[in-house]
Amino acid sequence: MTSGAALLGRGNIPLFSNNVWSAVNDASSSVNVKEFGVGLTHQFQFQDISSFALATVIPFLNFSTSFGLVRHGNTNLSEHELHFGIAHKIGIISFGGGVIGYQLGGQSISSLYTYGVNISVLADLTEKFSLGLSMKNISQSVYKEGVFGADLNSLFILGGQWIPHSTLKIIAAVEQQKFYDLMFKTGLDYQLSSIVSLRGGIQLFPLDLTIGTGVKLSHWSFDYAFITDDVLDWSHQFSLAYHLHHK
After folding, report:
1. What pLDDT digit, counting tens, does each position of 54-113 carry?
2. What domains appear along the chain, each with residue ranges and CATH number?
């Protein structure tokens, strides 16, 4: 699940994060984050089922490290993720990788533990066009064979970003998850002013829509996204981030 209302609002595409949420979405994009930041986000799906994430990216030279903590579920069944990633940029290519520790537990089952390995690559082919590839849980780790609902999902996503104007970004991607059919996604992010951004996106097979907005004031940024879902109906996500600007 993508973390951060900015990414959800522009089509729920984890590639090309370029913000604090690259800590849990796309490690290779974290090298494009030029300032230290901390973010907090919460997604409301149902009263009892929600997602929460805390993330940070620490840039230095052409490297960056990232840390993230994610929680999905409710008191009956919840999953926790602890993310650590590192990325490096060589020329036009950014490489990122990381390890995620998973814990699944609840009132009716004993806690299960495992880990996953992620890899992502980003290529800035021109100033206006980039390609990205992200693979999560490439180790195909599972909590425990044969336990219902305890398999660990994996993700393959390939996409491109086009910036026809300094105020507009358009992203398209194909996404394959372990337990789902191939999905096609596209979204856009329009910088209405130096403070306000407008976002929207669409997913095919199944059909889902997203809209969102963002506001930046001084060191703070606030983002909101509204997401439809063929299973969970609709949900809201809010994100708040603080950025420590470089001199």
Report:
1. 999 998 878 899 999 999 887 778 889 999 999 999 999 999 999 999 998 877 777 888
2. 5-244 (2.40.160.40)
